[in-house]
Amino acid sequence: MKIEPKILKGFRDFLPTAARKRQFIIDKMRSVFESFGFEPLETPSLEYDEILTGKYGEEGDQLMYRFEDNGKRKVAMRYDQTVPLARVVAQYQNELPIPFKRYQIQPVWRAENTQKGRYREFIQCDIDTVGVATPLSDAEIIVVAAKILETLSFKNFTVLMNDRRVFSELIENGSVSKEEMDYAVVAIDKLKKIGEEGVINELVNKKFSKERAKDVLDLIRNREKTDTIKDISLYLENFPSLKEKTKFEPTLARGLSYYTGAIFEFEVEDTTGSVCGGGRYDNLIGMFAGKQIPAVGCSFGFDRIVEAMDALNLFPANLANSTTTVLVTIFSEELKQKSFETAAKLRKQNISAELYLGEIKEKNPLEKQLKYANQKQIPYVLIIGPEEARNNNITVKDMQSHSQEKTTIEDLINRIKKQES
Amino acid sequence: MKIEPKILKGFRDFLPTAARKRQFIIDKMRSVFESFGFEPLETPSLEYDEILTGKYGEEGDQLMYRFEDNGKRKVAMRYDQTVPLARVVAQYQNELPIPFKRYQIQPVWRAENTQKGRYREFIQCDIDTVGVATPLSDAEIIVVAAKILETLSFKNFTVLMNDRRVFSELIENGSVSKEEMDYAVVAIDKLKKIGEEGVINELVNKKFSKERAKDVLDLIRNREKTDTIKDISLYLENFPSLKEKTKFEPTLARGLSYYTGAIFEFEVEDTTGSVCGGGRYDNLIGMFAGKQIPAVGCSFGFDRIVEAMDALNLFPANLANSTTTVLVTIFSEELKQKSFETAAKLRKQNISAELYLGEIKEKNPLEKQLKYANQKQIPYVLIIGPEEARNNNITVKDMQSHSQEKTTIEDLINRIKKQES
């Protein structure tokens, strides 16, 4: 019985070209994270249900993959990387340095509505600095995120910054009631999407008078930089390329209720929504430790970054090709030894070289091999037939220009190395 | 309410040092795989239950993580990477080049008995060449696996090779019955572990006479290389370092019943069991395509490789340290700008540099910072106090030798670069 090959909706296969692009981004991120002293952390895909449930609100509990394992334990699949981080910080608190700076790049699972173009399995890339509350630690997260975007070749991006105290101070000084602010934060977060009128309408629906809605919007809009934001800005001045990209935006709210201080979002050209967002959340990480532990961090929208890089053509062109640089064809049973030796020579020079592994037909031995190189988009095909073997040289076919010439293996090695450098 | 921070048995957190070791191996593997033209593939963690069940025998179905998702679909977590590969080959057969050479490095989940030291979540690293049946494609898998071990600095390893036809031909020529062979293969696979007597006893328990058991064992032991093994050996002669490590071993059986031709296992010194094993399996990959598709591949025992490398001390020493090379301390509010600039200078030279992010105490500002560097095993600590600022130099503390000296940032950069090269 033949079973139909298919995958679950919201889940994806990544064939080589897509997988190479993903790996390209991950490699760049890791090297930037590590250059700032962030260390890798991996946590299990499955956790005890009680560790995860109730941490992401009602929606989170609904979207979480939860089940009973073979031992009748209630388990849940990783939903984000912040709650596992909180568990790790509590569980190993005597081993971890403070600040604990970690990065984590693992898949998470959410039973999202796939009709909205959302995925049910996707990679999260997080950095967090745990255990310190200095504006410098906030600023560093922003610098790292900016460095990632620069390293991925994004030229035009904007960093919007705000401080949750912009809202809380208005409550403290009596300008806006706590209840009003709860509605205002939700509405104002959509300012860019629905415009001023939209925000006011939304507040009117929440029983604000039109005048009061306008007043509250203006009260927020006219707020000035908090001390934290000033401190962060001061540090950012060390990075001239960043300075002009950074903007204080008092209407930036970010949905998650757990933020307690600085918040920020990165937007790149031609992409709606942010590619990275984060902030300070001093009351969350301590939940398993039973004490307050300050923290700041950010999360990259991995799929959005892939999409934006595709749209802006930022991936290196050779990622679309095979990882192989040279296909070494085999001309005949008698000559195959020559091909084996040549492929080994190329690899010794760190040039990715592939031998054709299929059957070699006596009549027209190269036909299938060239077709294979074409399909895999291998840039060079190397031919060692009787004539080449006799003269101790090789024929190189450039698959892009379709030109072909006789040369030596040493010359080809030099040429490829020159191109790569 | 405080929730106890704990993880499910058989699952693991990987704190920075462990995570760095894992990543070190994965990076090396990827680069070797790609140098031979193997391309990355990723498949979903969850598949339709019907795709996975029944493919791994009764034991597999029992150990598999299976559940009903929120949409009442029966789903199962990835159990290996071969069945997903078979699905991919069928699903995208018009897009994939033949041979399709892919590598895959993803976690799999099995509800194993943890008392036997087994994990329930572990990484598999597989390479497979699909669509060709040549001995050259078998040989290449062996060469790649050997190259991986060499790249990971294993000096002494052995490659045991056999051909499943060693067994099937004895059935075909009437020397051993099919039923006898089924028992013999299972028993003989344990020859190394339980010795000749053990194998014979096991066969006697299966109703062999003692004489017949000896005869069958000898019949197998005295088999000679098949043509495939001869062809593979011929190709391996191109790799002098491999030649003396390779051994034809007619008693090697490998448990999995799906192998159809060449099989092999890699053993490294001081480690029981194999760190890599594989072979040809021409009847498995086609299961979703409804036609026979030849394939050969191997799988690395990732956790075993980590353990063997730890035991043999093969990890580079600096993996035990932080990823950070230099901690740039902050002496005071007034001098912090100097530290910011210095850290940025180091990073521009691709030297991983970290600023201390905690509060700086006026009295004894360096105490906590040095403790942090010590705990994270950061090799160099850089101090810019009032004197250093005045003289435009820096103090460098070598945390291993505990020596300390005044120098310039340029000098430190040169020194670190020299060490790294």
Distance linking N and C termini of chain A: 53 Å
Biggest contact: A-B, 100 and 100 residues
The CATH topology of the largest domain in chain A comes to: BirA Bifunctional Protein, domain 2
Name the strands of the widest sheet of chain A in spatial order.
1-5-6-11-10-9-7-8
**Overall tally of structural domains of chain A:** 2
| CATH arch. level architecture of the largest domain in chain A | 2-Layer Sandwich
Number of helices of chain A: 16
Name of the CATH superfamily of the largest domain in chain A = Bira Bifunctional Protein, Domain 2
Mean pLDDT of chain A: 93
Task: Decide which structural class fits the backbone of chain A.
Answer: alpha+beta
* Assembly level: homodimer
Share of helix among residues of chain A?
25-40%
| Shape annotation of chain A | elongated
User: What is the CATH level 1 assignment of the largest domain in chain A?
Assistant: Alpha Beta
Q: Uncertain runs of chain A with pLDDT below 50, 5 residues or more? A: none
Strand content of chain A: 15-25%
Main sheet overview of chain A? 8 strands, mixed
Radius of gyration of chain A: 28 Å
Number of strand segments of chain A: 16
